[in-house]
Fold this protein.
Amino acid sequence: MMNFRYASTLMTVSGLLLCGCMREVQLTPHSREGSVEALPISAKIEVSESVSSGKAPIVFDLKQAADGYFRNRGTFRELTDAGPDVVLKIRSRFKMDSGASFRYAFELESSLQGGGKLLGSYRAQCEATGGQVRITSEADRVPMNTALGDCLDSLAGQIESNGPTILMKLRGTLREPAIAVAAGPAAAPAFQRSSEVDRPTYRRPENPNDFALVIGIERYENLPAAEFAERDAAAVREHLRALGFPERNIIYLTGSKASRTGIEKYVETWLPLNLKEGSRLVVYYSGHGAPDTQDGQAYLVPWDGDSKFMKNTGYPLKRFYASLNALKASQVVVAMDACFTGEGGRSVLAKGARPLVAKVDMGPSGGDKVVVLAAAGADEITSTQSADGHGLFTYFFLKSLESRKGKASVQELFDDLKPRVQDEARREGRDQTPQLFGARAGSASF
């Protein structure tokens, strides 16, 4: 937990009056999750002068906030001003405006530099809506902190996901302590594996009507891990950015943020509030599925799911699809790297239970809006592409997107990936047959 204070003075910047009384705000960084480990390098954070606009901008100490955030989150081995391996430069924009209520918007742009090289550029934009009175009530302070916290979460996540590339560019320039951490036997699997599908080479213009929900759950609270699920989600998020999905429109849930409550609130509350007629939605899920052994209903397994009490702790797939189909969006595409047999792969089952795989219903029923790309058939289990650190389905899904430079229909992607997944699975002595569901499968596109 870190604290920072808003300015208690009156001053003018760019002709705008900045005012406020002394307020202490608490911001809690999200922890690094899953297989993502701290970068084995030291860093210094430099913050450029913030640009504020709107009717009544607010002054705050972003340097203190960023230092405390990255120190508590543990993105880097250490923060230091004395000979750091890299320098993270952050420039912020903050805007506040009002209508029926106050809206707070943060935009952070950053560059990571080290060894005389630009290691990466990152951008995050988040906003939140407060009450009708500015900075005088808890209802107003909390959303502002949420917006800034979400921006820092996004920024840190981008840097962490880019870890292998950063270390590769720094090779030969790191000081001995960093080299020892990077090369030692305890080095993180996420930095030992890299794949050509992790970073897209194409780039399409942003479309403000494109939205995405990306869920990747690898390490569960009380269940076996779903190997590589969070690396899958991180790579999918990179491709969505390249496809033109605005950062602020991508909901990214991993680890404890992908609890049942976390998934439910975005599917059933946030998306209905934000999607409009003509919006396009892509939903990606990587993690465990589970069958109900009594009626064959399929469940998504949230981070806090309990295989013994799936009716209480799981998210029914039928309810998931029904909620998506009820949205105002003109197109909803779901890519699902999970299986529902309960016999292995990315699926779980209560100990001692016997799965009824032939009865598991995986496809959407009712409505014609949702198109689903599923990793495997109802009686099959999913597998992984270990050399690349991805689920087999996700690897070839992203490979197909990359080969087509992001310009593909769902049907074309399916036709690309299905035989490749089948062939690779047979080499491992198993069957895995991707599925395509939905009345609009022929017209849906990325």
Q: What stands out?
A: The longest helix spans residues 138-161. The chain is about 30% helix and 25% strand.
